[in-house]
Structure formats: C-alpha cells, structure tokens
Design goal:
Layout (H helix, E strand, L loop, with lengths): L1 H13 L6 H12 L5 H19 L1 H8 L4 H25 L6 H19 L8 H14 L7 H9 L6 H10 L1 H15 L4 H25 L6 H20 L1
Helix pairs in contact: 1-2, 1-3, 1-11, 2-3, 2-6, 3-10, 3-11, 5-7, 5-10, 6-8, 6-12, 7-8, 8-9
Length: 245
C-alpha cells in the first residue's frame, strides 16, 4: 500500500512540471511494482490528476461542455483526436520495449529532448487549427517515457499569441480528454491494475489538486531545463551500466 501511495504522490506533483511525470512514475513502477507494465501504471495514474484538472478548471469545462466556448471546444477536439491517433500507435510500440534498461534509455533520451524543447520556446504567431494540430501532435508523442507532455504542449502553445498563464491553463486542460481515454484503455486491457492502483488514484488527485495552484504561480518562472538534463543523463548512465555490468 505504501508503494502505491508513493506513486500517487509522485504523479500528483510531477504531472504539472515539464519534466515528464510518465517517465518518473514509469521508472518508479518498474522497480517497485511487479507484474504490471510500468507504462500502463503511469498512464493509469494520470486518471487521478485528470480529476484534479476537471475540479480546478470546472468553470472552464462547464463553458466547453455547454457549448458556450466553441473556440476552446474546437481546439480541444482537434488536439485530442490528433493526440489519440499518434499516441495509440506509439503506445503499442513503446509498451513492448520498456523492459529492463530499455526504459532507462527511452526516458533518458526523452528527458534530454524535453530540455531542448524548454530552451527553444519562441513566439511564432500560430493560431487556431494550426496551433491545435501542433499541440496535439506533440501531446501524442508524450506517450514516450521522458518526453514531457507538459513541456511539449507548453512549447507548442508558446508559438501562439497567448499569455504564460493561458498557455499553462490550456496545456493542463487539453490533457484531460486524452488521459481519460488512455486510462480507460489501459484498464480495459488489464483490469488487474486496479487491484493496487486504486489506492494511488485518490492520492494523486488530492496531491495534484493541492500542488496545481502553487505550480501555476511558479512554473512559468522556473526553468526545469537543468533538472531534465541531469535526470536524463542519470537515466542514460544507468541504462549503460545495466547493459555492461
């Protein structure tokens, strides 16, 4: 039980930080949880932070669900469909390759690319469907452990003409439909994941809700590039040691 509580806490905190919560949770799951694919566990635990996003941005979701904000609805629809199409293909490739040191290598390279994205932000004036398409593509690629969903979507949205707060808000909101679909797929594929995973869900929800407000205020002011580079390098070194030792 303590292991799942720990995974829930990790997911609740790292979901909002652009350094890949999936990579961190998958690595932790690989060493702490037996008989469960670490990618499946990481995707499933996103369901807790999905509920946090729904609760925190409920007023905005109400506008979308009642068709009062058609522009946001269109953006989320395009981004979600693109993300699911790309993510489903990548999931079937990555989930079979993350055994042993393979996960360390994938996470390491993913984190280094995450750091690169964080350093390359530059406004390009993209708007509407083009911005939604790019954000959806990068969000779909985030199925790869270490390739931060937050960092990639923040990078894409920063190419538009949105304020830092709006970028973070939209990045978090566009995760919800994809997370719900992926968590549901993982559960239908392997219902046994709920046996221990259910404990982590309320923890990730509560921790995620508590940390979201704080991180919304500071995440736009703090660079996580150095952390991503260091953690990515450590993962690659660990993978090499696993191969040669």
């Amino acid at each position: 039980m303590i292991i799942y509580i720990l995974l829930g806490v990790i997911q609740g905190i790292f979901e909002w930080i652009p350094i890949s919560s999936e990579g961190v949770v998958a690595l932790a799951s690989q060493w702490l949880v037996k008989n469960i694919n670490p990618i499946d566990m990481a995707l499933f635990l996103h369901l807790g932070t999905f509920l946090a996003v729904m609760a925190y941005f409920w007023k905005d979701w109400k506008e979308v669900l009642l068709f009062r904000n058609k522009e946001l609805l269109k953006f989320l629809t395009i981004a979600t469909l693109v993300s699911l199409a790309i993510g489903f293909v990548l999931y079937n490739l990555v989930s079979k390759a993350v055994l042993g040191t393979g996960l360390l290598f994938i996470t390491g390279f993913g984190l280094l690319f995450t750091a690169y994205l964080n350093m390359r932000r530059k406004e390009a004036g993209l708007e509407g469907d083009k911005l939604a398409l790019l954000a959806g593509v990068l969000q779909g690629l985030a199925v790869i452990p270490g390739f931060s969903r937050s960092a990639s979507t923040i990078f894409a949205l920063s190419l538009g003409k949105k304020s830092p707060l709006d970028i973070l808000k939209l990045s978090y909101m566009m995760s919800a439909p994809v997370v719900l679909a992926s968590a549901g797929y993982v559960f239908l594929k392997n219902p046994a994941i709920l046996a221990g995973g259910w404990i982590a869900l309320p923890i990730s929800f509560l921790v995620g809700l508590a940390s979201l407000k704080i991180l919304l205020n500071i995440s736009s002011k703090i660079s996580f590039v150095k952390f991503a580079v260091v953690f990515g390098t450590v993962c690659l070194i660990g993978g090499l040691l696993g191969v040669f030792i």
